[in-house]
Write a structure and sequence with these properties.
This is 5-methylcytosine-specific restriction system specificity protein McrC. The chain is of the alpha+beta class. It contains 12 helices and 15 strands. 37% of the residues lie in helices and 19% in strands. It is globular. The N terminus is likely disordered.
């Protein structure tokens, strides 16, 4: 696998690492990016000092959530069934009934819905329990997860892992809203089980071959971290916020070809009148220039500049001096430079993903305070 590095530099996996990123730091990013982190809140999660405990923490949370649902009964759902019965249930399958002359034997072929706990949601949780049990370090937690998995199977939940399509179409109703927490923990448990140093049947796409996966993880981790940590201080966090062009006039066909703008993360503090527009990438922040060894990537500079300048002059006063932050991951390299362009501070910085988890957290917090404003 290839990690974040200079262009054309290939970095192979080493034990305990994915590329040159420690596995435990990928777990940390996954925790920050998860819905579970938002639901349990920052006060109940203190893992930066020892991120190796993240799988155990998630497994314990998942086990507790499953135990709570078992105590209150698992949520159920309906599934389609076809069977030959001695009485009518649901709809009669006339073709099958006539073809096999079932009425002469006092039988009828029926199609009906059956209430069951063998739902994609419960099978998803069962799969998470079985997978995370093999990742955790504490034998007691591993045994607890396996015991709960066996309990689900005894109740009728099959061990067939649902497809992504089945999971993505699952919707929470008013009566099963309590499942949200359990499913969020299950999702994070399955995500954590992927980037381990051991060989397995699951494949984790590398950032080199699948930059979109890595960038989305990094982007969601940044948004999730700020959402939980900064919200109590009066900040509002917006992920994937669209921006509008301030159009005075336009031709008929421009809407079909004019690109839209969507930021990665926006931090607003209404009390202080501050706005920080963050753009995250999963590439090196600098590249080789025409006349120098290292240069900021011009396309990224133009992009953050467009995000800021396209919003000035409008009705929102926070746009007039909004700051921009181009935040890249790095391996063993720190860049932190700021420039003020037309009244807008723009910061170019990196977060070292090979650093200790506590340093990653501190680095993210430092990004909110701009050296020039």
């Amino acid at each position: 696998m290839v990690s974040v590095a200079a262009e054309d530099e290939v970095v192979l996996d080493s034990p305990g690492h994915v590329g040159r990123i420690p596995v435990r730091n990928l777990w940390l990013l996954m925790l920050y990016a998860s819905d579970l982190f938002r639901q349990i809140g920052r006060k109940k999660v203190s893992v930066e000092d020892n991120p190796d405990d993240i799988p155990d923490l998630v497994a314990e949370i998942l086990a507790h959530a499953v135990e709570e649902r078992l105590y209150r009964n698992l949520s159920s759902g309906f599934r389609q069934r076809e069977d030959v019965l001695s009485r009518v249930r649901g709809r009669i399958d006339l073709l099958t009934t006539e073809r096999h002359q079932l009425l002469a034997r006092g039988k009828v072929a029926c199609r009906f819905e059956e209430l069951t706990i063998d739902t994609p949601r419960n099978r998803y949780v069962l799969a998470a329990l079985e997978v995370i049990a093999g990742v955790v370090r504490q034998p007691a937690i591993s045994h607890r997860c396996r015991k709960l998995a066996s309990a689900l199977k005894r109740l009728g939940v099959s061990g067939i892992r649902p497809t992504r399509a089945e999971v993505s179409t699952d919707r929470f109703g008013r009566h099963d809203a309590n499942d949200r927490f359990m499913v969020a923990a299950a999702k994070l448990a399955l995500d954590i089980a992927l980037p381990t140093e051991d060989d397995g049947s699951e494949f984790l796409a590398s950032p080199d071959r699948d930059e979109m996966w890595a960038r989305r993880l990094y982007e969601k981790a940044v948004a999730g971290f700020y959402d939980v940590v900064l919200s109590p201080g009066g900040w509002k966090i917006y992920a994937g916020k669209p921006l509008s062009w301030q159009i005075a006039q336009k031709t008929v066909g421009i809407d079909a070809i004019l690109p839209s703008m969507r930021t990665d993360v926006v931090l607003d503090h209404v009390g202080d009148g501050r706005r920080i527009v963050i753009d995250t990438k999963f590439t090196s922040i600098v590249t080789k220039g025409w006349f120098r060894e290292a240069s900021l990537r011009s396309g990224y500079v133009y992009q953050i500049y467009a995000y800021l300048m396209s919003q000035t002059g409008g009705a929102d006063p926070m746009n007039q001096e909004a700051a921009g932050l181009l935040l890249h991951p790095s391996i063993g390299e720190l860049v932190d430079e700021t420039v003020v362009i037309q009244g807008h501070p723009i910061r170019f910085a990196t977060v070292d993903l090979s650093a200790p988890a506590s340093a990653i957290r501190q680095r993210l917090l430092e990004m909110v305070a701009f050296p020039l404003h």
